[in-house]
Amino acid sequence: FAVSNGWYVQTPNFNGYSGGFGYFPSEEIMIIVYTTETEDPKSGGQAFPIVMELIKMITPENIVPYPHLR
After folding, report:
1. Mean pLDDT of 41-61
2. What SS3 string covers 8-59?
3. Of 63, 60, 66, 70, whose CA–CA distance to 6 is shortest?
4. pLDDT tens digit string along 18-46?
5. Residue 45 φ then ψ, to 5°
6. Is 67 exposed, middle or buried (0-12, 13-18, 19+ CB in 10 A)?
């Protein structure tokens, strides 16, 4: 769980599902994405990168800096 640039974000994973969520309280925006994990363990979860891209589109002035996704 992290708070960054006004966003509350987390990457929950459960039983083969990759999750990601973001909440932007000042605008009451909630993003929730879940994906199934691939068979390749090196690929990692895909939900959180999708959440980060949606945040860039919805609030370009409040991008969450997450260096692992660049």
Report:
1. 90
2. EEECCEECCEEEEEEEECCCCEEEEEEEECCCCHHHCCCHHHHHHHHHHHHC
3. 63
4. 899 999 999 999 999 999 987 877 777 88
5. -75, 145
6. exposed
